[in-house]
Amino acid sequence: MSEPNTMQSNLPSQKDAIAAALALYPTRPFAVSDIGSQSGWLKASGHDARNLYVSGPMGLATSIALGLAAVRPDDQVLAIAGDGALAMNLTSLATIVGAKPKNLSILLVDNRVYEFTASVPTPTREMDWLAVGRAFFGADQCMRLSDLTPERWAGVARPAMIVADIAAALAKPPALGMTPAMIRMEFLGAAKRS
Amino acid sequence: MAGQAAGGDRLFRSIQAAKPKLVTGVPDGMLAQTIMACAASPDFPYIACAREEECIGVACGAAMAGERAIVMVQNAGLLNSLGAFATMGLRYGLPFVIIVTNRGALADPNGYDIEKREAFDAGVRPMARVFDFDASDFPDDLIPAAFKWAEAARKPVIIALEKRLGSLADSGAAA
After folding, report:
1. Which of A60, A136, A145, A173 is placed for a possible disulfide with B57 were both Cys, Cβ 3.0 to 4.6 Å?
2. Of B56, B57, B91, the CB nearest to A180
3. Closest partner CB to B66 (pick from A94, A99, A192)
4. Is the overall model pTM greater than 0.90, yes or no?
5. What class has domain B2-164?
6. Which chain B residue has its CA at the smallest distance from A190's CA?
7. A21 exposed, middle or buried (CB, 10 Å; 0-12, 13-18, 19+)?
8. pLDDT in tens, A113-147
9. Residue B70 pairs with which residues in a beta bridge?
């Protein structure tokens, strides 16, 4: 069996990819991260009251982000999903295309394994996520993170998708250290202020 | 058909009275007229989801921002979504309203609906507050009242609508 950490050692970490995607925005967007790996690495990349750490089923972040984007149309929203997670809610991409939110984007971080298992490959490991994203959003609205600059990202219409190939982590992210009530109240405060 | 439109319009008016920031759903025959009215409403967006679990996520996103959201699904669709309902709606204490058409009632005996209803009783009722109403005879302030309850309880609430024997009005059911 291959060693993903070794095989992908030239790729950015999930933490760095998330930080790079957030840095594309002129002001901090709302960031909605899937359970486990994405939430842990989002927090590790820099805690912010506009971060929404989800504990729901894997893959639901894109749907939650769509609901948030609908009620906060003047704010940018970034959903952060892993390849294993998004595969569990792939239909949400069709829903997002139909809803046409002008403020929602998706960051797909692809390490080809279920990170919390350390090694179990995802069934999408052979899939071309860039092609999948472009099938839903079009070539102009789905691109690789490595091809983006803040200037280019500012000109991309939404909804949009960013694909980031990342290295599988050697260890799990630090624990969130926040209860659901804490997450909700802190996020609610940020949402009310926006 | 006139009765179907009237039943759907009545539920729509109750939804409208609750002043939601968004409505989301997956169609059921009993909800079709209401969904069409919501989709045409200028007062709030209607988000048509591909799967019912997505609806729970969409409503949770709105509720996390402190806004009112309504989900409309069939009982089988809610059964598909219980993980999201539990780990988001209940775990984060989010006060949104789920309108469920509870198919398979005594007056609604489609063979393919019977087990859905039995699974709803066995799977949903033990974990969530369900208020049951005749789909053709409910108070005009049903949905506003449901939000008041959910916001006081700090949790989602389920309004289950069903066809009942002896109802005078048409329930709005198309299938």
Report:
1. A60
2. B91
3. A192
4. yes
5. alpha beta
6. B65
7. buried
8. 888 887 899 999 999 999 999 999 999 999 999 99
9. B23, B97
